[in-house]
């Protein structure tokens, strides 16, 4: 919630700066004094975790780019040289590769949080849509990055995914092939393709950074959601971001680093594919071409539709549909905590996504094809049927009267606005 | 643009080679009389893709075996060895390879079967394998592209 700024510059220098470029004021208002709901749980720490992931990917990526060679004859070997010869390359390369997977684990948990608690509902529609754009840019960045080591999966994944555009030949004859040739920079995936993929992979994270700034800005205008879905109505509903939310976020980041470190130091290749340790060979197709795990649900949807163009449209629709959720969900109650029917469908949707992920890794044969089609239907049904219908027919559970009441129990924070004795909403005063 | 010349004299009857042209594999098979007969025996109307997909011929030309080869040189089948489904390289060039149910090529990625004329007969691929532009410079040498 944008309120009136409480920043007071403490020194003459600080005052001088504040009159010319109020950066310290902005930081104070946005991240120190900013009122955050007092009842946020750990599902609200993923925004901070994602920012950490983005910075980590950019820093490790820039260092890798100092040693990586984006040429089809040298790329594979340059990655090996980084792992073996470059000082701390053995650490920086796995940090970047594992970091991509951790980035997606965090983003999926962040998205599911938004779906469960109704964080996409008014007035947070633009915040949500910016999030979808970040997700799309992340997917593009991840795809481009995976091609760079120029292993068998890099090359053939690039071939399969760029070939999807040729399905546009069904819309305007020749247009698809022309687009694919233009993307490739030649008649097949080759050196021109690798070189431009490297350029775009370096560019997109900074585009993500820009959209993230808009995303955080949009968040600070409307304020965070919280597990009850109620707005902050009185001072006792909120605590200042510093120290409460900041320390919770920092603690969560450290916990997040534990599995991150486990993968890096104990099994850095576990989330990857062994075939990517074979240098790219345009004459040998690997027996099973699979994307990285975070693309598997969408890969399953792509292959579930028998038509080439239909599969591409369905895969894109699976992401674009997210944009419309604020208007598809008709419920007047935000949080699934008070929506008993929707909650059931939500968990079934989580199961659907996990099932699609599993099916995306399986060969495109029966019985997997049938189940991929079944769960593709479930996926779209959640957005196009469940959200509009359940919102109208469901009777929500009784909502608490305020955030304070949900934390302190009945008899507190009923609307009076008094802060109960012993409940501090500022730093400890000694 | 980007033409190559290929010497066919080492390729005996029943053998096949793969050459790289424009970054893509081109299958060249010296077909046996049996394979040519099989290809000619197919009723074009029963094919999944009834067009010849021959770069030298108009779009609408039907996919008879004759329209997939050069007249007088019917034993030589030259095609772009990329599955028209999602771009894998079909198996069938070497003697030991699986050739699919129609004696031609088999794509291991999603199970497309091609016949001895390189036409799609079963599986998810929508089109026959493409015939590139090529011409005979002599009885034993062709120029592709």
Write a concise keyword list for the protein shown above.
heterodimer, A: 430 residues, mainly alpha, two-stranded antiparallel sheet, B: 145 residues, mainly beta, three-stranded antiparallel β-sheet, 1 helix, 9 strands, 6% helix, 30% strand
> Overall pLDDT of chain B, averaged?
93
Q: SSE order of chain B in H/E notation?
A: EEEHEEEEEE
Task: Quickly give the structural class of chain B.
Answer: mainly beta
Shape estimate of chain B: globular
User: What integer is the average pLDDT of chain A?
Assistant: 94
Describe this entry's structure for a reader.
The complex is a heterodimer of chains A (430) and B (145). Chain A is mainly alpha-helical and 430 residues long. Helix content of chain A is 61%, strand content 1%. Chain A contains 16 helices and 2 strands. Chain A has helices spanning 12-20, 23-32, 46-65, 75-84, 89-117, 125-147, 152-163, 175-184, 191-222, 241-266, 296-304, 308-320, 325-328, 340-361, 368-393, 403-408; strands spanning 35-37, 238-240. Chain A has a two-stranded antiparallel sheet. The radius of gyration of chain A is 24 Å and the shape is globular. Chain A starts with 11 loop residues before the first helix and ends in a 22-residue tail after the last helix. The model of chain A has no long low-confidence stretch (mean pLDDT 94). By secondary structure, chain B is mostly beta strands. Chain B contains 1 helix and 9 strands; from the N terminus they run E-E-E-H-E-E-E-E-E-E. In chain B, the strands form 3 sheets. Chain B has a 3-stranded antiparallel β-sheet with strand order 1-9-8, with no helix packed on it. In chain B, strands 2-3-4 form a 3-stranded antiparallel β-sheet, with no helix packed on it. Chain B has a 3-stranded antiparallel β-sheet with strand order 5-6-7, with no helix packed on it. In chain B, a hairpin with a 4-residue loop joins strand 5 and strand 6 (112-115). The longest helix of chain B is centred in the N-terminal third of the chain and has 8 residues, at 33-40. Chain B is globular, with a radius of gyration of 14 Å. Chain B starts with a strand and ends with a strand.
């Amino acid at each position: 919630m944008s309120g009136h700024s409480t920043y007071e510059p403490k020194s003459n220098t600080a005052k001088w700066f504040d009159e010319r470029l109020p950066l310290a004021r902005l930081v104070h208002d946005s991240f120190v004094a900013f009122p955050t709901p007092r009842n946020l749980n750990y599902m609200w720490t993923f925004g901070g975790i994602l920012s950490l992931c983005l910075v980590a990917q950019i820093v490790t990526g820039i260092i890798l780019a100092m040693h990586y060679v984006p040429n089809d004859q040298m790329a594979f070997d340059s990655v090996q040289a980084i792992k073996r010869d470059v000082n701390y390359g053995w650490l920086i390369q796995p940090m970047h590769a594992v970091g991509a997977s951790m980035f997606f684990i965090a983003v999926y948990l962040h998205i599911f949080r938004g779906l469960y608690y109704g964080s996409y509902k008014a007035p947070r529609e633009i915040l949500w849509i910016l999030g979808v754009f970040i997700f799309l840019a992340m997917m593009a960045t991840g795809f481009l990055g995976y091609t760079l080591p120029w292993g068998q999966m890099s090359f053939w994944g690039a071939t399969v995914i760029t070939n999807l555009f040729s399905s546009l030949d069904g819309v305007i004859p020749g247009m698809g092939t022309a687009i694919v040739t233009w993307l490739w920079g030649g008649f097949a995936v080759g050196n021109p393709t690798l070189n431009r993929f490297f350029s775009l992979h370096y560019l997109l994270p900074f585009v993500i950074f820009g959209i993230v700034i808009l995303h955080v800005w949009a968040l600070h205008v409307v304020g965070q959601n919280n597990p009850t879905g109620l707005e902050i109505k009185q001072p006792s509903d909120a605590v200042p971001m510093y120290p409460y939310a900041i320390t919770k976020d920092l603690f969560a980041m450290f916990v997040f680093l534990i599995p991150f470190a486990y993968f890096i130091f104990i099994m850095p290749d576990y989330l990857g594919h062994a075939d990517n340790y074979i240098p790219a060979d345009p004459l040998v197709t690997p027996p099973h071409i699979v994307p990285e795990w975070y693309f598997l649900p969408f890969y399953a949807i792509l292959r579930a539709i028998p038509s080439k163009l239909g599969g591409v449209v369905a895969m894109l629709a699976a992401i674009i549909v997210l944009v419309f959720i604020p208007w598809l969900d008709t419920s007047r109650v935000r949080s699934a905590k008070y929506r008993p029917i929707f909650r059931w469908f939500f968990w079934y949707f989580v199961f659907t996504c996990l099932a699609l992920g599993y099916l995306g890794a399986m060969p495109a044969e029966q019985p997997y094809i049938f189940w991929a089609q079944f769960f593709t239907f479930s996926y779209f049904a959640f957005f196009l049927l469940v959200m509009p219908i359940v919102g109208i027919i469901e009777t929500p559970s009784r909502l608490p009267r305020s955030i304070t009441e949900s934390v302190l129990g009945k008899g507190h924070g009923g609307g009076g606005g008094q802060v109960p004795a012993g409940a501090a909403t500022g730093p400890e005063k000694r | 643009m980007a033409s190559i010349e290929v010497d066919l004299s080492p390729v005996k009857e029943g053998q096949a080679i793969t050459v790289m042209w424009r970054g893509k594999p081109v299958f060249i098979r010296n077909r046996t009389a049996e394979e040519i007969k099989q290809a000619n025996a197919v009723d074009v109307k029963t094919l999944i893709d009834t067009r010849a997909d021959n770069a030298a011929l108009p779009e609408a030309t039907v996919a008879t075996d004759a329209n997939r080869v050069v007249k007088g040189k019917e034993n030589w089948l030259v095609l772009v060895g990329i599955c028209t489904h999602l771009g894998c390289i079909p198996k069938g060039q070497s003697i030991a390879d699986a050739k699919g149910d129609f004696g031609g090529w088999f794509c291991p990625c999603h199970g497309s079967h091609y016949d001895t004329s390189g036409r799609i007969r079963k599986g998810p691929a929508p089109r026959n394998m493409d015939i590139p532009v090529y011409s005979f410079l002599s009885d034993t040498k062709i120029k592709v592209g």
